[in-house]
Each structure stands twice: as C-alpha cells, then as structure tokens.
Amino acid sequence: MQIKLLVEGGSMSPGPALSQKLGPLGMNIAEIIQKVNDATKDFKGLKVPVELEIDTKTKEFEVNVFSPPVSELLKKELGIEKGSGIQLKMQIANASIEQIISIAKTKFPNMLCNDLKSAVKTVVGTCVSLGILVENKSALDVEKLIDAGKYDKEIQEERTETFPEKRAKLDKYFNELHTKQEKVIEQEEAEKEVAKTDEESKEATTEEVKPEEDKEEKK
Questions:
Q1: Would residue 200 count as lying in a domain?
Q2: Distance in angstroms (rounded) separating the CA atoms of residues 16 and 218
Q3: Helix/strand/coil for 139
Q4: In which domain, by residue range, is 7 found?
Q5: Which single residue of 102, 129, 192, 214 could bond 160 by disulfide (Cβ 3.0 to 4.6 Å)?
Q6: Residue 187 lies in a domain
Q7: Are residues 175 and 75 in the same domain?
C-alpha cells in the first residue's frame, strides 16, 4: 500500500491528518515519524514529498524520499520565505542563471522534461509565479530568451556556480529596484488612504445635509 505525504524536512510531527492515514492500518506512527525525519534531515526547512510503501500484513514499511518542489528549492537557494503575492508590482529576489541551472539539475530526474534546457525553463516558470527576477530580467522574458538560445552555453556546460562579482551586481540591481518598487507601493497606499478619507468625508457631509432637508420639507 502506498501513502503519499508532504512533510517538513527532518521535522515531521504527529497530527490529525497523519493519524487518519496511518491509524486505521495499525501502524506504529512514532516509528514512522522517526524514520521519515531521519530520511529527510538533509532537507531541513523545506517541504519534502515522501512516499510510504506499507505491507499491511507484516506492518513493515519503506520510506521513499523525493526532491522538494521547485518552489521550495528556489526559496532555499535565494533565502526567501514566500512568494511575492503581487508579482507585477514587487519582485522578491534576483536569481542568476547558474542558480536556476543548479535547481533544474536537482529536479531533473523527477521532471517530465526531455533535456536540461526544458528543465531550466520549467524552473524559470516557477520564478514567474513567485515574483523572482532572473539575470535582472522578468522571468517571462527569460523564458523567451531560453527559447531563443540565449543561455544555451551555460546550460550545455551545466554551470552552477555564480561568481562573487556577478552576484554583487545582481544584488545591487535588485536592491535598487526593490527600493523603487517599495516607494511606488507606499505612494499607491497613501493615495488609496486619501481617496478613502475623501469618500468618508463626502458621506458624512451627505448625512448632515439630509436632516436639514427633512426640516425644510416639514415646514
């Protein structure tokens, strides 16, 4: 019998969902948790897909660990906790093509991709949804550049190291852009607040005028 789980690497703990899946089988949940944590300890801080192969007769089981989702690998690689949420207005990181290739190589065995180039493009696609720049560009633009062969050399050579000088330039660009984006968002929020205040003032004025009109009608 197979049971699929998505666990926190090295930190799986008891819970209702786990009890519902394993309880009816009469399995030793504490033992399973310990073995899963041992098997996933190298992925600490990441969500990891785990598959349990259980023999319901003997109660024996095997733990199969798969590489974390691309989004989790990107978060760890770039030191971010979550995606942007407002991808069109605010980017949250600036990845090098080498970092993208590194993640693509990690995930490639579990991907439905024919080659590394396709895997790289898939990782960049996840950058789109998270709000991550790649090489100072929008991830959407980088997908097109990959198709055009812009990064063929890096992909063919399987480059995974970002040199410090390049990293510094990417960080400088991102920090300047991030500051500008924050200012734009702050301005938009301020304008919304002003508009809200104006609307409330108009409503209050309307309410004050109504009683006066009622008095005139009664006369």
A1: no
A2: 67
A3: helix
A4: 2-65
A5: 102
A6: no
A7: yes
